Amino acid sequence: MALIDMAPPVRKPGEVLIQISAGGICGTDVAIWKWHEAVVSQYAPQFPLIVGHEFAGTVLESDSPRVQPGAVVAVNPQIACGHCRFCGLGRPTLCDDRRLMGGRINGGWTEFVSVPEWNVHPLPEGVDSAVAPLLEPLSVATHAVLERVPVRVGDVVVVIGAGPIGILCAILALSAGARYVMITGVVEDAGRLEIARQIGAIAVNIDAQDPMKMLYALQAEGADIVYETSGVASTLEQAVGMTRKGGSVGLIGLCHAASTFKSTPVVIKELALIGSRGYNETTWTLMMNVLPRVAHDVLKLITHQIRFEDFDQALEMVARREGIKIVLRP
């Protein structure tokens, strides 16, 4: 990767020209940087490629009455074809020709982008604009917690993995009325687990504490819902073991290693194993309605702000699991 000069984009009809104010860093960005084939193959990047699928900014030009110049906006970086079977079903995250900005086509680690108007989402009035670059990962958590495996009031929820998506899932589960949310991590996640405590979750360092014992103290029969966000191969069996009879396991983390587990408990307990990928347009609408209630906690995830010029330093920090959410600023 290199920082280079490029011609600014030219806005097409139906698009919105945005001046970028911030970009977030995801594990996918690190995987592209280090060229992890298992991840890169999911996106089929075309080079040269501007990376970054978490970004936000201010509208400079727009023909849409919904998106006015001067508005602070977040961008849904998923560009769907609009005519395949899954787009017709309202599930563009499964689109046969899904193009992710920053993964397959140019993204947002730049100064200006021009994107389709319907991919642009103004922030609700009164919401701190600093939260805007975190809305793409928040939409991933929203799809999992409020659409794919919805939390009900009074549920006991376990989140495996104390990364940004895991903590965002915990925030949304608590907002949805979960009685308890337990989030697990390892000793290297001490800072992340502290943030989890601050947002009201029960944080468990599995290197020093027994997560099963702590779960059974909350609810003897186990969790109503377990969200697996770590992508670690060994945690699938743990997730199944932590879920009560008739409960659900939401699979969010991307695991690229072989994973084995005994299926008998899934059958005996009649568990639902449900995958959750990305988000749909309905997800972003739902998230914007929820955002005023959770924005204060979401902002706690920002631990570092670094200039775009120092992108390699920021990527190294993410690779070393430093901080929680690192934001790049032009």
Question: Can you walk me through this structure?
Answer:
The mean pLDDT is 94. The two termini are 16 Å apart. The strands form 3 sheets. Strands 1, 2, 3, 6, 7, 14 and 15 form a 7-stranded mixed beta sheet that branches. This protein has a 6-stranded parallel beta sheet with strand order 10-9-8-11-12-13, sandwiched between helices. Strands 4-5 form a two-stranded antiparallel ribbon. It folds into 2 domains: 15-138 and 279-329, Alpha-Beta Complex (Quinone Oxidoreductase, Chain A, domain 1), CATH 3.90.180; 150-275, NAD(P)-binding Rossmann-like Domain (Rossmann fold). The relative contact order is 0.15. The chain is α/β, with parallel strands linked by helices. It is 30% helix and 24% strand. Helix 5 links the parallel strand 8 and strand 9 (180-185). The protein has helices spanning 27-34, 37-40, 85-88, 135-148, 164-175, 190-198, 211-218, 235-242, 264-268, 281-298, 311-319, and strands at 15-24, 54-61, 72-75, 78-79, 99-100, 112-116, 120-122, 156-160, 180-185, 202-205, 223-228, 243-251, 272-275, 302-307, 325-329.
Question: What's the short story on this structure?
Answer:
With 330 residues, the protein is of the alpha/beta class. It has helices spanning 27-34, 37-40, 85-88, 135-148, 164-175, 190-198, 211-218, 235-242, 264-268, 281-298, 311-319; strands at 15-24, 54-61, 72-75, 78-79, 99-100, 112-116, 120-122, 156-160, 180-185, 202-205, 223-228, 243-251, 272-275, 302-307, 325-329.
